[in-house]
Design goal:
By secondary structure, the protein is mainly alpha-helical. The protein has two domains: about 190 residues, DNA polymerase, domain 1, CATH 1.10.150.130; about 190 residues, Intergrase catalytic core (hpI Integrase, Chain A, Orthogonal Bundle), CATH 1.10.443. The protein is about 60% helix and about 5% strand. The chain is built from 16 helices and three strands. Strands 1-2-3 form a three-stranded antiparallel beta sheet. A hairpin with a 5-residue loop joins strand 2 and strand 3. The longest helix is centred in the N-terminal third of the chain and has 28 residues. The protein is globular.
Amino acid sequence: MFPGEEPLYSQLKDYYPTWQQEEARRGEQEKLAKLVAHMEQTKQHSGVSPLGEDHAGAIAPQHPSAFAQSQAPTQRAQEQARVTISAALEDFASHGLANRARASENTRKSYLLDLRQWAAWAAARITYVDEITVESFTRYQLAMETQGLKLSTRHRKAASLRVFAHFLVRHYGLDPELLDAIVLHEVPEKDPQPLKESQYKALLFEAGQVKSQDKPESRAKARSLALRNVAIIQVLLQTGIRLSELTALTLDDLDLPPERRGAKAEGGSVRVTRKGGDEKLLALNSKAVEAIRAYLKVRPQSQARHVFLARSGEPLTNRAVQKMFKTVAARAGVKWSHVHNLRATHVTYHLAHGTNIVEVQKNTGHRNLKTLQKYAGVVDQYYREAMEKNAL
């Protein structure tokens, strides 16, 4: 994080003028500037007040000190009419992001976080929108590189800046050349890293382990968390949905078959809300149904309708799931893995075993089938390993 981020964030939570108010203020500023320029021009050409000789003393004071005092209100009005960067950023959060209908909530939060970091860096140099220049962006990108940020991180932050710059050009009349100052780095795409069968089974095993507790209440809570963690990993693994889609699931999104004593669990379905608000009904296989059903039996009582809850009974956050997964992954011997690897495992396994690619696309929510082409090499390697393992 850049120095000064926290104070700026606190500042951003205060009241800011709306976009319409700023538009009105800029209009008043332009009118005032034109009036002052016209009066000065008239005065220079005629040597007489534009209001006439009788009023000359009212606007053309004889003493410099009096003249400075008469100009002070004008300067203050002009300064008040100028739009601060923080106000423009609040305007962007309220109006600019609202127009990006297909952007997920996480994407919107990332935009604002990146832009607040830039604003914190810029605060030591500039205050108003009309002070933003090409250098305001080029020097910041150089600072990120000097700080040693990863190429992918710099690319994301530059993309956020570019969206904001478009907004400034469109709504505040800034020079379009600002857009050319923001360099979007080419980030080489990494090959997917699916987990092997032994690895994801180790994850499920470790997730279900309950540490010994002295008190019965503590043991019950630990068991509840263990069953929750298993259900989370199973749902991600068996459906291929995104982490944000998992944490957004509510009890109303689940359609589980009736439980029959002594009978094997049947498949069910789950309604998932995709990026942009689209809803899709996906199949839940018997393994996912069993894991969810086991967790729901010990799920804490809560007013929240979300499926997965924290210890407090509040909805589980993406960050909390990531933290849980890293702990379990370390115990399972796959410390390198992340939650996203479960999604890659789902895609690789199903493509390698002949699942229709359109069905895989439906589960993962990829908008373009070409996105799944990056799995071709991984699937080929999967085939080779299977042939070697099952050699006659």
